[in-house]
Amino acid sequence: MLLGGIAAGMILFIVSVGLSVTMGLMGFVNLAHGGFAMLGGYAIVLAMKHWGLGFVTALAFGFLATAAASVVLERLLYARLYRATELDQVLFTIGLVFIMIASLTLRFGPENQPLTLPRALQGQIDLGFVQYRTYSLVLIVTGIAIVVALWLGFERTRLGAQIRAAVDNRRMAESLGINIARLFTITFALGSGMAALGGGLGAEFLGLDPQYALKYLVYFLIVVAVGGLGRVTGVFFAALLIGVLDFVLKKYLPQGGPMFIYAVTIVLLLWRPQGLFGGKAA
Question: Taking the model in full, what pTM does it have?
Answer without folding.
Answer: 0.90
